[in-house]
Amino acid sequence: MSEAESDARTRTVTWRDYREGVTAAKTMSGLEYLRAIVRGEVPGAPIASLMGFAPVEVSEGRAVFEVEPGEYHYNPIGTVHGGLAATLLDSALGCAVHSTLPVGAGYTTLELHVNMVRAISQDTGKLTCTGEVIHVGGRVATAQAKLTDASGKLYAHGTTTCMVFRPAGPGGRE
Fold first, then answer.
1. Angle at which helices 30-38 and 18-25 cross, to 10°
2. Where would you tag: which of 10, 15, 23, 92 has the fewest CB atoms within 10 A of its CB?
3. For residue 133, is it within any domain?
């Protein structure tokens, strides 16, 4: 056995079929749907399982996620890859927007701006990412989020612009 083989680590990832959640989302408001995910009644996003983070709280216009950074999040230079912070911010921002939408409405991220302010390591401890809506209009929504540790120290912050898709009203116009 080579030194590289004896040093190898493994991680097993499991997730539920995302299509169950897609079906449920069509029958619930954004807030109802996200609360069902937090309660474990419908599957969350498979990427959350892959990256080891989870939504822990949602209210109208606000979404909170948590992650415990681990070695499997590392980049080749010995710190947590910035993609973890970016993914957490994108998730909290998008879910904050989604929590304000009625049944049948959806959204997509048009723009994501991320500011990393300090390195993250597996010694950082649990991180909390809190997203809050700034504005929700007929077609465009904006939100902001912060990624902090247990003491409130800031690691990253960001903003998003989302396009909102609303169900067609009378006369077929969206």
1. 150
2. 10
3. yes
